[in-house]
Design brief:
heterodimer, A: 88 residues, mainly alpha, two-stranded antiparallel sheet, 3 helices, B: 604 residues, Sodium/glucose cotransporter, 3-stranded antiparallel beta sheet, two-stranded antiparallel ribbon, 24 helices, 7 strands, globular
Amino acid sequence: MSKPQTFNPQAYWGATLRLLLTTLAIWFVVSFGAGILFRDALDGIHVGGYPLGFWFAQQGSIFIFVGLIFWYASRMDRIDRDHDVHEE
Amino acid sequence: MDLKTLTFIVVGLSFALYIGVAIWARAGSTKEFYVAGGGVHPVINGMATAADWMSAASFISMAGLIAFLGYGGSVYLMGWTGGYVLLAVLLAPYLRKFGKFTVPEFIGDRYYSNAARIVAVICLIFISFTYVAGQMRGVGIVFSRFLEVDITTGLIVGMGLVFFYAVLGGMKGITYTQVAQYVVLIFAYTIPAVFISLQITGNPIPQLGLGGDMGDVGFLQKLDRVVTDLGFAAYTSGDKSMIDVFCITLALMAGTAGLPHVIVRFFTVPKVHDARVSAGWALVFIAILYTTAPAVGAMARYNLSTTVNTAVATGGDVFAPEASMLGTDRPGWMQRWEKTGLIHWEDKNGDGRIQYYNEKSKNAEFLAKAEAAGWKGNELGSKGKKGEFDGKVDRDIMVLANPEIAGLPNWVIALVAAGGIAAALSTAAGLLLVISASISHDLMKGVFAKNISEKTELLAGRIAAAVAVCVAGYLGYNPPGFVAEVVAFAFGLACASLFPTIVLGIFNKAMNKEGAIVGMLTGLFFTMGYIVYFKGIFIEPMAKNEAANWFMGISPEGIGVVGAILNIVVAFIVSKMTAPCPDHIQHLVEDIRYPRGAGTAQTH
């Protein structure tokens, strides 16, 4: 478990936390935002046969969660490599 | 071939498959027993996690819940999927880097305290046993309804099977049988959904069918009209308050991320990178069922409403006598399922027809019209425990009878039976394993009998799993009256106790053992107290479970969120007043924050 020579823990953790906050902001907006808090306003818009707020609550949020995790994982890989702490 | 024989064959084949896989993948070491050797491919782990996570409740009950709640059912859809985002960014990669076998082990090491480890074991055992009792009950119910065998026989067969692969195979056996179970359950769920979507909207993809058209009008618009014509709230609106919907969703999300049997699945992959990606794959496999469920629910609700009252589909006069179905014209599936009591008809006004409507409608004009038409109360419901009429159709019927309602061939019905059993067994096995690991690894090896050899520990794990199977079987056979009520309990406790404590352990270096223990206990007892106060588990409820009495309008299902906030606040206050966290623990926390050097799960 040797730390690499160039490793700067503060910089790595800062980058990780920034990505984490971005991810959680998206997570919050698509579920609690679009599906609950602003549902009434969004329901006025129809996409296909769905009122938009209802769609976010029962379909959209789930699809976005899936994409969000893979996006997060690939961005974390980049951060790991940039700071030279990725796995061999 | 008749339905019963076919069902026996399909269920029997699925069992043979699970047993074959279990023999092929049996465990030889503690590492294989607890974490499947730490070498599971992330996609395979994702599939196993999906089967582990999707229980009898997801498979049998959720679509029916959504059918009758409409928009209100969204709390389950978002709550039980959004937790995987929390798991991927807050927990899984860091716990994988930590590289141990159990959740209490992390809490015990991170907070340098056996007391913390034991508190975590107590939380874990409570959460897991309430959950597993429901699964065993689910196995018994599916057996008795589809195979017409005694519920006890069904339970014993289910226990025997779980015993076989959980006790012999440990995590390794469970992982690969869960993959097989996932395949069975996902086909069983989606095939009827595809046919029903095709019949109603002409679109074979249920997710699109739900937003599709019926003739010149959108399906959801039409459904809104159908249910409001019968006096119910519009399908796409809900009757829960916003703060309650918000809190229940958040409690289910954090509770999901804090469930020990889900967390340990991420200890089985080779690398930190895999733990992140594997959470994504788990959600892919879960989303296939979870985005299908709202379509199944909405279409089942439509089928049921328009079968019983023919006028709602055409826009004719709902109150005309001939609009309500004649009792003698009841379709075959309704007559068959009446035997189980899940659906029940009582002719209150003696006209020989079934009036199905919301007798407690908030629409006064509707109620006046119903009274003028000679309707004397809703006549379609289910049979209560004592054989009395209960005005609510049992929600489970929406999935169980779905293939019959749609007129699908018998093999699809047999497949649904096998799918329901697969969902219950896979979750039960995962739960039994974390219970046995917490006893053999955390309590025995970790605290009370540190000197036992690996072989003894493995034997202890198997004995603990065997005992847990028997206890679970007993609880399933003789369910304490509150099994249905405790779902809120399991999620609320995971949300208020384990989840915040683990997250603080990773993201706050300075958090010390005093803060963690007091915080965990605060979250645990506050949440437990609030639920017992309104739901009265073991004792009579102390207050009526209704919005006027709730704290800030938050129901017992959502109160875990308040418990989690209290946990965190108390933990910070106590940690500021007590001895700081030692340096070597702070270094441990720094070490788990970056991936390099994860290796495979270590014993020490």
